Amino acid sequence: MLKTFFFGITLVPINCILLISRPTNVRSCMRTFSTNCESRVTNPLKASVDYDGSMCNRIDTHYIFLVHGWMGNNLEMSYISKALKDSITKMQELNAPKNRIVVHSTIKNDGRTADGIARGGERLAEEIQQFIVDDVKKRSEECNDCDTKDVTISIVGNSLGGLYARYCLSKLSNHLSFTKGISSGEGNKNNIHKIVLHSNIFVSTATPHLGVSSHTYITLPRSIERGVAYAIGDTGKDLFRFPPIGGENSNDLIFEMGTNYKTFLEPLSAFRKRILYANAFCTDFQVPTNTAAFLCTHSSYQHHIQSGSSPNYIVATLTTDSNEKILNENPSGNDQILAMSTKLDALGWTKVITDVRDLIPIPTFPNPFSSSSRVKFDKIVKESKSLESKRLSSILNRSDRKVFPLGHTVLIANSKNSLYSKLNSNGKPVMDRLANSLISDVLNDWGVK
Question: What letters, b where the CB count within 10 A reaches 16 and e where it falls short, cover 230-255?
């Protein structure tokens, strides 16, 4: 009961079509990482590509990995899979590019989301590496004289899946290899095939980047948070930011992931673009606005407001500037939320703030004692080119309507079963927008227009 009450059933993506991978045998995807696939985790993921003019060495495959979260199953993010498939099909019909886009819905954390962020992130890294090696190995016959393949990876992590993905980057190698069969009489000359991974686009949707301690929908005393965390298991302890007992590090994992540059933030900085989607106006029970968009009531970090027309469910698109000086500084002071918020903002993000109040299937009721939060925000946007994090936090966490906070599942058009599919169907336009922009971003600057 506690698990469902505080986190609900969130995300997951598995039935992908066309160029989208859908495992038909779960056991086949749970095998141990092959010993002839090398993994060097000391090399951070790289964002740049050096072309050598070889047709074999050009980037022709872009991988997109969809990562589910707490108690995820293989249906919850099926609409995202469909939206990506439709966008890929449309792009192919219009441009017919030679680049492949392969979307894989990860499954190694299915039914295994209670044992902590680290274990889930490690399984995810293993699955991503094994999937890429298997796919490249299968296609290697098409280019027998090529011993190096360059590919890109993009990740969409939903809710807890976004934290899995961020941890995974600390374990993911940017160089993989596999051994191809020995040719008699020719020795081992061309039998080692290398794969170079280049970081492309990172996306999170309703991910609790700052954890959920002090970020629950209803404020809880620390003693209650402890009880809930321990009832949920190791993942609960991580999310509520309880350091491991007897561990070498006195800091909790969420804080380490939000401030440790070399281990966690540098691999994330390698991505060409970082995007997040966050629900505003008290619509997300599981992951409120501040932790989803790492806003902080004490932070003065500037968020630039992007101009242009947007559908009504988009409140604003905000960007933060990267700042290497902040990233390389050691966190100081006692305000850990401020330290994490500032460091994450310093990576440089595009933040898409959504208003799903009109998409929630249960009617909302006006609050006669409150002015329109959306009208107020729109007025501020027209008068300002940028807003501080603390100002955004103040505005986006109020609502002039009494609303059932079901935005967490509506945002991703959660389709875990037929009832969920109907209840959350109004969120489909949000995912259509995400899919179209993601495919465009994945191909942008890689020689595809």
Answer: eebebbbbbbbbbebeeeeeebbbbb
3-state secondary structure at position 311: coil
Q: Token pair 């599981």 is at which residue?
A: 286
pLDDT at 56: 40
DSSP characters for 285-298? SSS-HHHHTT--TT
What is the rounded distance in angstroms from the CA atom of residue 349 to the CA atom of residue 269?
A: 10
Query: pTM to 2 decimals?
Result: 0.86
State how far the Cα of 342 lies from the Cα of 326, in Å rounded to an integer: 8
Phi, psi of 165 (to 5 degrees): -65, -40
Rounded Cα distance, 210 and 292, in Å: 8
Identity at 107, one-letter amino acid code: I
pLDDT for 245: 65
Token output for 333? 């002071």
pLDDT given for residue 207 in this prediction: 98
CB atoms under 10 Å from CB of 331, counted, come to 18
Q: What are phi and psi of 162, to 5 degrees?
A: -65, -35
The per-residue pLDDT for 17 is 31
Q: Is 167 left (phi over 0), alpha (psi -120 to 50) or beta?
A: alpha
CA distance 196 to 188: 21
Strand-pair partners of 387: 303
Domain ranges of the chain: 1-181+189-283+322-337+406-449
195: which residues sit within 8 A by CB, 6+ positions away?
132, 133, 136, 148, 149, 150, 151, 175, 176, 177, 178
- What residues contact residue 331 under an 8 Å CB cut-off, 6+ apart? 259, 339, 343
Radius of gyration of the chain (CA): 22
pLDDT computed for residue 190 by the predictor: 55
- DSSP letter at 243 equals P
Q: What are phi and psi of 61, to 5 degrees?
A: -130, 125
pLDDT mean by block of 10 residues, the chain; 449 residues: 42 36 40 34 43 49 92 82 91 72 91 93 96 89 70 95 97 87 51 89 98 92 91 93 70 94 97 97 95 97 91 95 95 92 98 96 81 79 90 92 92 88 95 96 70
The owner of tokens 């699955």 is: 127
Which pLDDT score is estimated for 338? 97
Q: Which of 239, 234, 285, 228 is nearest to 2 (CA)?
A: 228
Distance linking the first and last C-alpha atoms of the chain: 49
Handedness of CA 76, 444, 102, 170 (dihedral sign): negative
